[in-house]
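Incident log, structure service

09:12 report received: a user says their structure output differs between two submissions of the same chain.
09:20 pulled the input from the user's history:
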Amino acid sequence: MATEQAGHADPAPAPQAGEVLFDVKGLEVYFPIQEGFFKSMVSTEKRFVRAVDHVSFQVKKGEILALVGESGCGKTTTGRALLRLEDATAGEIVYKGRPLRKYSGKELREYRKKAQIIFQDPYNSINPKQTIFDIVAEPLEVNSVCSTEHEKEERVITAISEAGLRPATEYLYRYPHELSGGQRQRVCIAGATVLDPDVIVADEPVASLDVSIRNDILKLMVEEKEKHDVTYIFITHDLSLAWVISDRIAVMYLGRIVEIGETEEVVANPKHPYTKALISVIPVPDPLAKREHVILKGETPNPVDIPSGCRFHPRCPEAIDACKEIDPEDVHIRGDHYAACIRLK
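09:34 re-ran on a clean worker, output below:
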């Protein structure tokens, strides 16, 4: 997407609210395909899954940016690349004015204190053999944050209490199997916030929870954002959730961001056909409201063999012949709103 250039002062000052925290430029993350023995012997061509394919965007300090799209669109890989859990094949991720690829050793360890992740599945992302205290305290111990046991205990209790498990002392020495799914996810949130991070990547944090619990978890995340000025990259396949919680939305399809902008602007004035299709199936509370549902035909193409031209054209209800040939550039709509479609020019 069209972006402003971030400064490269070193050391970079802490960004204020609204300033650029991440500046992502042309990010690509490709995964090589492991061929069978005989096929690898006769073929010299290497094939790749193009999980993230030339993506550019910015994340501002103190905002919630939602990455939205179908399974396999590259949103999780993008989030993991921001934390350097996946290596970028090409492109640049600039954090506070300094490229992440230049971080090593002590700098990378310091960065990992400030950039945390909440995984999708609270049943598998925490160690069932550890107590809640040990789970939440582990980031403090790994990073040698606390000088005394008393300080560590205070920080763990504060994190657990702010995550909504109260009184926190009653949960310290329980094990994960003694908690509900919602309580386990609160433990994951406590583990992510105990280091007072600048940014948290929340990867489908409520997807595995009952609908009755989702609102509480989303409310908790918003409270953490407002109280500690935490920046969230909120990854979800559910556009209605992104509408409720995010400040800006980036819609991804097959490794690309096809539309990005302020949430209310994107939802009220969608420009890309894929965004229109996602919004058309969001439930509305008015039973008399009439809305034409856009049902996409076919399956998402294989990310190993991406279609020529616009990658959405095989499923697009608005496609024209030129869509098969032209790879669309980002078109400025207004403000921070951009969409990649040749029909907008």
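09:41 both user submissions now match this output. Likely a transient worker issue. Closing.
09:42 reviewer note: The chain has ten helices and twelve strands. The CA atoms of residues 118 and 188 lie 6 Å apart.
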